[in-house]
Amino acid sequence: MKKEFWLERWARSEIGFHQNEINPYLLRFWNALSHPAGSEVFVPLCGKSLDMVWLRQQGCFVLGVELSALAVKDFFHEQGMTAERVSEGNFDNYIADGYCLACGDFFDLSKQDVAQVSAVYDRASLVALPPEMRERYARHLVRILPPATQILLVTFDYSQAEMQGPPFAVSVNEVEALYSQYAEVRLLAQEDVLEQNPRFKQRGMTRMQENVFLLTLR
């Protein structure tokens, strides 16, 4: 999947993945993480997610990375903030009020960029990537994060034959295959959510499950 795909989605406002409310799993399970109060939380492929607002309200410093400058600018505009733009390396960093949203390619991030991170929130990153990119994503993420970082991960699981992603189907077994070499993988919840997602049901899907994981890097 090329970068142009996501840039065009944002340009055409085809952002059905954007939620207009705080993710319920974030509300339910964030306290399962043992990150220090006031620490830095990383949100990969962050878009303009309102989940970042909730994380900031908990006292976290929010570091996001997003390919689309339009998404980043929309976030600050919709939150009534004026961000300072600071260009550094491969990224244009937009900074304001405890947020730093790095506009650029996730795969260009280095260990130095996330050196202060103690937790990661991944609701829309892994599931946004096709199979051939997910392994590369997971390897890069665990390579750059500090040891003992915890990741709250939300995935979808459904028959990929019934619908093409994104969001892509990512099974429990795949999460374990991607991360168990590098982290303790704990399944926190499995929820049948097809009835709450009529647009997917209308497309012929017969099963949709959401899985929530807590990953703790070794």
| CATH topology value | Rossmann fold
According to CATH, the homologous superfamily is Vaccinia Virus protein VP39
From the helix content, strand content and strand pairing, which structural class follows? alpha/beta
Mean pLDDT: 93
Please tell me the CATH architecture by its name.
3-Layer(aba) Sandwich
Tally of individual helices: 7
Question: Which features would summarize this protein structure in a list?
Answer:
218 residues, alpha/beta, Rossmann fold, nine-stranded mixed sheet, 9 strands, globular
What does this protein look like?
With 218 residues, the protein is of the alpha/beta class. The chain is built from seven helices and nine strands, in the order ααβαβαββββαβαβαβ. 27% of the residues lie in helices and 28% in strands. The protein has a single domain (3-217), classed as Rossmann fold (3-Layer(aba) Sandwich). The protein has helices at residues 3-11, 24-29, 51-57, 69-78, 131-144, 172-179, 198-202, and strands at residues 40-44, 61-66, 84-88, 91-96, 99-103, 117-122, 150-157, 183-192, 209-217. The chain has a nine-stranded mixed β-sheet, sandwiched between helices. The longest helix is centred in the middle third of the chain and has 14 residues, at 131-144. The chain is globular, with a radius of gyration of 17 Å.
Summarize the model shown.
The protein contains 7 helices and 9 strands, in the order H-H-E-H-E-H-E-E-E-E-H-E-H-E-H-E. It has 218 residues and is an alpha/beta fold. It has a single domain (3-217), classed as Rossmann fold (3-Layer(aba) Sandwich), CATH 3.40.50.
